[in-house]
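FAQ: What does the model actually see?

It sees only this:
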Amino acid sequence: MKKIKTEIVRTLRKMNDLNLIIGSEGNISCKFGKKIFITPSGIETSKLHYNEISELDLSGNILNKKKPSSEVPMHLSIYKNRPNIHCIVHCHSVWASILSCQRIRIPAFHYMVAEFGGRDIKCAKYATFGSSRLAKNVLNVLKDREGCLLANHGQLTVGKSLDSAFNLAIALEKISKQFFFCNLSSQTKYLENSEMDKVLKLFENYKSRH
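And it is asked to produce this:
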């Protein structure tokens, strides 16, 4: 278990170095067997030790007396409804947060939108952080997707591994910045559904080989 906790701390620090989070912002979790390991509440990334990672069961009961992130309901909801997901990364990165405050989805302006599993990247309806309503809203837009925006909040990505979820968080921040500027211009051209379907198929075949 030390290995999983250490990896979570290492990834959170990488997020801090890349300015995806500041201070105690954001949270990471990993599911291993019948346990969930999640970052604690209110501890700055620079001061976080692997022993402070909270351990929960799949019902949300705390197993090691470490207070977990306030976003536990959101993480648990995803794990219960998406059994193929083993890691979740949530952050308030700048460009993704800007788009989330506009409450807009990211359409097929670039083929790499398909990296997140569909023809667009959706934005979950607003709800108070840490609430069951937010958990429900995120689950609704995450269907068949590996990433989404959270209205007036930030972004969330998921994966079968921590590396894949983390890399998607970086990719979502990049594509959010690109779309912000493209959305300012009437000259931006969007890809047809048929083209996005071809790209999705290619991504699916690529993932099956790796």
